[in-house]
Amino acid sequence: MTAGSDSLLGEAVYKQLLDRIFTGRLPSGAPLSVPALAAELQVSRSPVRDSVQRLVADGLAVHTPHAGARVAHVDAAEIADVFAVRELLDGYAASAATVRATTAEVEKLVRLVEDQKERLAAPADALNEARWDLEFHTAVRDLAGNRALSEALHRLDAKAHLYNSGLWSDDAERRFAVAEHAAIVHAIEVGDAAAAERAAAAHVAALGVRMRRIQGTTAGTYSPSGC
């Protein structure tokens, strides 16, 4: 196997593990056994070991001596910090996306939201709801054309998805989130960068408040800027 194919395999394994974390298939505290994951993914141990090390470097996993690596735990205080930063960066990403997006790219965003609206008629599917939410936000961020921004938000999203709030099992939350996504896309579609920034920031802020309510944490736990 060439160095190039090794790199591609390693990236594929990392993305699979990251997807499992994002969707909750690997929840906080789950062991990241290299032999077990290698057998399950039908790959050698080397790319799995490298991927687990990347997760540790990203803050998504922790390594305990004599116990191996586990998916990291994120508490309410840390998730508050994550959402405060996301509020600023997602707002900036939506503003930049508005300026850079082509008509065809905007149409893709519109279709993404329309698909989300249609899925509201079906029962909640927490794992896929989280994946579709990530798909939407990734699409907006990619249009901003700023790799450093996309990577930073990707890591923050990973942290957010580690926090098991039950958010995506809630029908009301699904409706709220899709309505907020639609507001972001409408602002991008009409070319109002300032409105897109406000809509994206407001979405993250509101998401944090609703997450706090579902968790039943105290009112002072999460304080998004501007609220």
Task: Write up this protein.
The protein has 227 residues and is mainly alpha-helical. The protein has 9 helices and 2 strands; from the N terminus they run αααββαααααα. The protein has helices spanning 3-23, 34-41, 45-57, 76-100, 103-119, 126-143, 147-162, 171-190, 193-215, and strands at 61-64, 68-71. It has a two-stranded antiparallel sheet. β1 and β2 (68-71) form a beta hairpin. α1 (3-23) packs across α3. The model is unreliable at 218-227 (pLDDT under 50).
Tell me what portion of residues adopts beta-strand conformation: under 5%
Overall mean pLDDT = 87
User: How large, in whole angstroms, is the Cα Rg?
Assistant: 18 Å
The structural class is mainly alpha
Total DSSP helices = 9
Catalogue the unreliable spans: 218-227
End-to-end Cα distance:
54 Å
Order of helices and strands: HHHEEHHHHHH
What's the quaternary structure here? single chain
Describe this protein with a few key phrases.
mainly alpha; disordered C terminus; Tscrpt_reg_HTH_GntR
Short structural description:
With 227 residues, this protein is mainly alpha-helical.
What are the SSEs and their pairings?
Elements: H1 3-23, H2 34-41, H3 45-57, E1 61-64, E2 68-71, H4 76-100, H5 103-119, H6 126-143, H7 147-162, H8 171-190, H9 193-215
Helix pairs in contact: 1-3, 1-7, 2-3, 4-6, 4-7, 4-8, 4-9, 5-6, 5-8, 6-7, 8-9
